[in-house]
Amino acid sequence: MSKPTKEISLRKMKWMLFLLGFAKIPIIGFIKPRLIVLDDEKATVKIRLRRRSKNHLNSMYFGALAVGADVAAGLHAFYFAEKMGKKVSFAFKGMNAEFLMRAESDIEFISEDGAKVSDAMNRSLESGVRINEPIMVLAKNTKNEVVATFEMIVSVKVKI
User: Fold this and answer.
1) Are 45 and 21 in contact (CB under 8 A)?
2) 147: helix, coil or strand?
3) How many CA atoms are closer than 13 Å to the CA of 85, on its beta-carbon side?
4) Please, are residues 126 and 1 in contact by the beta-carbon 8 Å criterion?
5) CB-CB contact of 42 with 79 (8 Å)
6) What percentage of the chain reaches a pLDDT higher than 70?
7) Quick one: pLDDT at residue 9?
């Protein structure tokens, strides 16, 4: 089993998120999610409620909420790939969302399933096959109320 070895700075991961939005996935660059926390267990991303992210009801648009969940769930794959020094083929296989209330303020997207992503990547490295893992993401407003929950099915394959 390959154990993560390198320390990865939050600054480096912020830069990688910026580059991902700039070069590969323009909608991420347009929405401009801000990385708040990223460690072995937790990823927190914040999206501000502003003209680019809100709908006609002055709440956060569904697409902006999906971007936040996508980034919060996916960052651990990039984080552990950097720590392992491996290339990873990463995608989302599915998504289930439940919207509990209108998102009428800035929203933080929190994923505390880093250990599940790390385990999936280690299993993929050992077996050489693609591994699917459900990752939970909570979307909270500035009052710390949960406005939405997302189950993102992360699919990873570590390239040998």
Assistant:
1) no
2) strand
3) 6
4) yes
5) no
6) 97
7) 86
